[in-house]
Amino acid sequence: MAISVEGVHKRYGGKPALAGLDLEVKSGTVQAVLGPNGAGKTTAVRIMSTLLRHDEGVVRVAGHDVRTQAPAVRARIGLLGQHAALDEGLGGRQNLEMFGRLNHLGARRAGLRADELLDLFGLADTGRKPVKQYSGGMRRRLDLAASLITEPEVLFLDEPTTGLDPRGRAEVWSAVRSLVGGGTTVLLTTQYLEEADQLADRITLIDAGRVAAEGTADELKSLVGADRIVVVLRDEARLAQAARLLPEPAVDADSLTLSFPVEDRMAGLALTLRVLEEAGIEAVDLAVRRPTLDEVFLHLTDRTDAAEVAA
Ligand SMILES: Nc1ncnc2c1ncn2[C@@H]1O[C@H](COP(=O)(O)OP(=O)(O)O)[C@@H](O)[C@H]1O
Ligand SMILES: [Mg+2]
């Protein structure tokens, strides 16, 4: 395990921000911590990266206890935004070289590392351009590069794409993906379901400082409910007949749509095709709809007994 968090509590002036948080992240994987504003994401990242002390529980990162072995942890992690002090007047490459020197790399090593990282994040062509001319996405990628100067085992990204436009977000996603190949363990927090879905091997959904659910995106989706078969008819006159033949479908008369839950999506599709064909009912569309992560999020963060759902 690259990260192990057990029963962590953190209170700010008596008010709990983390209330028994548990989290395990395997080496070389991407873990998303997903949660609404105020869920405790930043608090958790600050504790895991030794910037903040927790009140109770045990946190180990890269094989070391964050409380008793903080310097060893710090030597093995990177944190996005830690080096937010990019020099606007300098080029991207000069900034990275400077961070390398600040992190005790020799001049030659710092230069090589800067070039490697510019390459990795698609900034090689713009390495000489002053940072003040960078787009939001380029700047965030340069931030990412800076947090990787020391080749950390574990990288923490606290809402890495917040405030970026869709293009910048896509650029950062592809930068994060290219890290994974290199074996770095990444923990990223996000409020964006799509981001967790796109990037993470596993997702921990937190709400009010504790885990509401944990699993792969698919596992989380199946928590909310079954897949649904959705069929759209051509002819309004056949709607009532189709509703009798299919297994207790929900019917939307305006859009001529019938839908019903299935355990087995392929069997559900086959059944629907057979029923329609035998009755000579024409469909204009037939699809399986999976629950979306948005539905998972709303479903789980809406309920007070969310912790039980995960159990
Ligand atoms: N420095 C602080 N002092 C007091 N309360 C804080 C502080 N930082 C965070 N909180 C509170 O702790 C809870 C969790 O905050 P945070 O970890 O920032 O959540 P997130 O990053 O998920 O939005 C919130 O209720 C927030 O108001
Ligand atoms: Mg936060």
TrEMBL record:
Q: How does it sit in the membrane?
A: Peripheral membrane protein
Stored SMART domains: AAA
Q: Which PROSITE patterns match?
A: ABC_TRANSPORTER_1 (PS00211), ABC_TRANSPORTER_2 (PS50893)
The listed locations are: Cell membrane
Domain annotation ABC transporter: ranges:
3-233
Primary location recorded for the protein, binned into one broad class: membrane
Query: What keywords appear on the UniProt entry?
Result: Antibiotic resistance, ATP-binding, Cell membrane, Membrane, Nucleotide-binding, Translocase, Transport
InterPro entries from the xrefs? AAA+_ATPase, ABC_transporter-like_ATP-bd, ABC_transporter-like_CS, ABC_transporter_ATP-binding, DrrA, P-loop_NTPase
MF annotations from Gene Ontology: ATP binding
Please report which protein family the annotation says this sequence is part of: Belongs to the ABC transporter superfamily. Drug exporter-1 (DrugE1) (TC 3.A.1.105) family.
Its protein name is ABC-2 type transport system ATP-binding protein
The organism named in the record is Streptomyces avidinii
